[in-house]
Please model this.
Amino acid sequence: MQNAKDIEQLMHDGDARSYGRRLERLKFLLSLEGQDEHPIPLPALAYEYYEEARLCWYMGAFVATIIMVQISFEELLRSHYRVSKGVGGKLSNDKKVDDVGFNDLIDEAKNEGYISTQEAGSLHNLRKNIRNSFVHAKDVKISGSGNTNFKTPNFFTQTLKIQAPEVLGSDVVDEAKEAIKLLVIAFPDISKRHGGL
Model:
């Protein structure tokens, strides 16, 4: 069993190794953030998710970053519809606000003009091509000829993105960077619309 001093030293060593990468990620975040002096009206839960997504990015928790970015946007859209449709209200597809998924919320927001077509496209890309492959990791599919397509998301390709990205030529860091960039740029703009600004 390790004593408290050994554990403290392990923490110190880990902090020293990761300092440069955290600093680089923080600089990236700060380079994206606007210099808006006015507070943005935000639903409390959506804002908490937003802050946690940024913290996950800073700390290097890349899968968590992706998931928290998606949750941030989903809660922001859901909060908007809780206000505009009322608690227990229904969207145009006749489903209750709290019973629909992110896909329905994006489509409703786009169709109502709450978000732009470009924002909807970016959110659908986040949902389908970045987040889903981690949240809904599938089994490896092998064709009748015994070949495996490593381009389709499955538990193995997602593991490679994290553990051996050089094999695929893509990695979870790039996907998390794309997600956090979307969050930091689009979330405040959409939030301002939520507050009627």
